[in-house]
Specification:
- With 308 residues, this protein is α/β, with parallel strands linked by helices.
- The chain folds into 2 domains: 174 residues, Quinone Oxidoreductase, Chain A, domain 1 (Alpha-Beta Complex), CATH 3.90.180; 110 residues, Rossmann fold, CATH 3.40.50.
- It is 21% helix and 28% strand.
- Strands 3, 4, 5, 6, 7, 14 and 15 form a 7-stranded mixed β-sheet that branches. It has a 6-stranded parallel β-sheet with strand order 10-9-8-11-12-13, sandwiched between helices.
- 46% of the residues are buried.
- This is NADPH:quinone reductase.
- InterPro entries: ADH-like_N, ER, GroES-like_sf, NAD(P)-bd_dom_sf, YIM1/Zinc_Alcohol_DH_Fams.
- GO terms for molecular function: oxidoreductase activity.
Length: 308
């Protein structure tokens, strides 16, 4: 099969190329998915799991990409809950070859059924961004109706979904970002917007929940904005500065089939709209990974067939 893989850890994206790799093996409780569309995280070439398996053994050439949408073509021994020919979407394992390949083996529990009226490009934009937004706001932030939430990076892949989910639950939503992000954040449901280039973050006042995807100085300054009993949630890095009378949580997104099903239901109803900024063929995945490629929303890689 064809796959976009990296053969040299030190080379980064310069070591990424389209190559022929063996068809994946379906282990116990796995399925093999024919990938129609794939999503990726630009920083994943820095993750330890990209280069070694769970036992710490080198697994180059490594196939990046962990979000996928496609069709089940094979069931591993003992696999239940999914069938051959079923449309699915979800997360590939962090320490196994990912989704930038024509076929990939995935634990069945990491996938959810994909309704026929959601196209593969949209579905591939949901798993990491959607689950991260959901878990950050509700699992870790415990956001509820009537509370105030500050969402950094409100026009990005995670932030744009977080704004929509927080708005739907009835929270007062303050988004942050660059000047060019204001209109989009407000259109998605933010009640207010802070331009991090021209406005002072501290002028927002105190909030119940801060959801951070930026880290660094912005994360440190955000701790002082959390009300007593509130929560600072971040996916960027463990916070060095914590809220004085609140909580701080750093987390890594977890696969969750029930949450994926809930997210897909919201997409079908029009309550949630993932922002797909571009769809590129597998051969152009190297360009999409480039660190200077900044887009609003997600760049999706088309792997097999026309995305539909």
């Amino acid at each position: 099969m064809q796959a976009m893989a990296v053969s040299d850890r030190d080379a980064g994206i310069k070591g990424m190329s389209l190559m022929e790799l063996p068809y994946p093996h379906a282990a116990e409780n796995d399925v093999v998915v024919r990938v129609h569309a794939a999503g990726f995280t630009p920083g994943e070439l820095d993750w330890p799991g990209t280069w070694t398996d769970r036992a710490g053994r080198d697994r180059t050439p490594s196939v990046p990409g962990h979000e996928l949408s496609g069709v089940v073509v094979e069931l591993g021994y003992g696999t239940t809950g999914l069938t051959v020919g079923q449309r699915v979407f979800g997360l590939a394992d962090w320490a196994r070859d990912g989704s930038l390949a024509e076929y990939t083996a995935v634990e069945a529990r990491n996938l959810a059924p994909l309704p026929a009226d959601i196209d593969h490009a949209v579905a591939a934009a949901l798993p990491i961004s959607g689950l991260t937004a959901w878990q950050g706001l509700f699992t870790h932030g415990h956001l509820t109706t009537g509370q105030t939430v500050l969402i950094h990076g409100a026009a990005g892949g995670v932030g744009s979904l977080a704004v929509q989910l927080a708005h739907e639950v009835g929270a007062y939503v303050i988004g942050t970002g660059r000047t060019a992000d204001r209109d989009q954040a407000l259109a998605l449901g933010a009640d207010a917007f802070v331009d991090l280039e021209t406005e002072k973050l501290e002028d927002t006042g105190e909030v119940d929940v801060v959801f951070d995807v930026i880290g660094g100085e912005i994360l440190a300054r955000s701790a002082a904005l959390v009300w007593d009993g509130g929560t600072l949630v971040t996916i960027a890095e463990p916070p060095e500065v914590r809220p004085r009378n609140g909580h701080a949580v750093f987390f890594v997104v977890e696969p969750d089939r029930s949450q994926l099903i809930d997210l897909a239901s919201r997409v079908r109803d029009g309550r949630l709209k993932p922002i797909v900024s571009a769809v590129r063929p597998l051969a152009e995945a190297v360009t999409a990974f480039a660190p200077d490629t900044r887009t609003r929303g997600k760049t999706i890689i088309q792997v097999n067939d026309a995305i539909r």
